[in-house]
């Protein structure tokens, strides 16, 4: 009986090994175990919000996109505290199989009573770090997810020293682009930031999940095996403009410039942060839109 159970368990783990998520954190050198999706929920204590399965989310507008399924507070939910503003927070993934795609980190501020009462699906998130295509072409280049794998399946984000002190959810996400539709892997943890600054995110830097991404976002629809991917050297990371991108502590991600492209309605040209470009994209004239050059299907632009 025991042998059978052990064998079944090992087969099961093998079956889910192609996916996963953030399984642990370290914050300023202190290590925190994550939630264990395949263990009983009973008695589990973690700073991480519970999640149920290693499977990816395949819909950019899924109700579970904020903190995975179900992302509700655990019965014995913990919060990492204090986390000094400016701290380095590392997320550790299981042995990660998907080396094509971005890695993105968000924060969401909770009330002063803490995050445990907060429904992640209605929380407002801002992006504190993002990395996508680091070099080369979409088809064969180096992606942030590959760098994460190379770095012990881990990704380190610095809490901006400018964010106001308080309770936050921190959301690490990688999006795998090796198959279509794109695969979303978000997990969240609760932290309390101390010694922060006074730069609140602006309204255009805040999104909800679902809401922050669209199925039609170029960073979601991208075909890494298509003809355009052979020469394309840019990737539009989905989501809002980076927090503090005009003066925060995180240096802005280097942007690569592309030649102006004219887009016809209902297409608009987006910049590298997914916002409509204010110039170079007349809505009432121009040739057929070149989707591979960064045009998006949303005539109203982001938001
Ligand atoms: C690599 O990651 C594991 C967690 O998956 C962690 O326990 C270990 O300390 C890390 N190794 C280094 C050298 O950071
Ligand atoms: C579309 O844009 C891509 C990237 O800028 C470019 O390589 C390609 O030649 C363009 N295609 C057309 C038909 O203009
Ligand atoms: Cu997978």
Automatic annotation (TrEMBL):
Q: Where is the signal peptide?
A: 1-18
Q: Which reaction does it catalyse?
A: [(1->4)-beta-D-glucosyl]n+m + reduced acceptor + O2 = 4-dehydro-beta-D-glucosyl-[(1->4)-beta-D-glucosyl]n-1 + [(1->4)-beta-D-glucosyl]m + acceptor + H2O
Keywords in UniProt for this one? Carbohydrate metabolism, Cellulose degradation, Disulfide bond, Polysaccharide degradation, Secreted, Signal
Coiled-coil stretches: none
The cellular component terms of Gene Ontology attached to this UniProt record, alphabetical and capped at eight, are: extracellular region
Q: What is its main location?
A: secreted
InterPro entries per the UniProt record, alphabetical:
AA9 (IPR049892), AA9_LPMO (IPR005103)
EC number(s) in its UniProt entry? Answer: 1.14.99.56
Q: Fill in the domain comment.
A: Has a modular structure: an endo-beta-1,4-glucanase catalytic module at the N-terminus, a linker rich in serines and threonines, and a C-terminal carbohydrate-binding module (CBM).
Q: What does this protein do?
A: Lytic polysaccharide monooxygenase (LMPO) that depolymerizes crystalline and amorphous polysaccharides via the oxidation of scissile alpha- or beta-(1-4)-glycosidic bonds, yielding C1 and/or C4 oxidation products. Catalysis by LPMOs requires the reduction of the active-site copper from Cu(II) to Cu(I) by a reducing agent and H(2)O(2) or O(2) as a cosubstrate.
Annotated protein name in UniProt: AA9 family lytic polysaccharide monooxygenase
Species assigned in the record? Coprinellus micaceus (Glistening ink-cap mushroom)
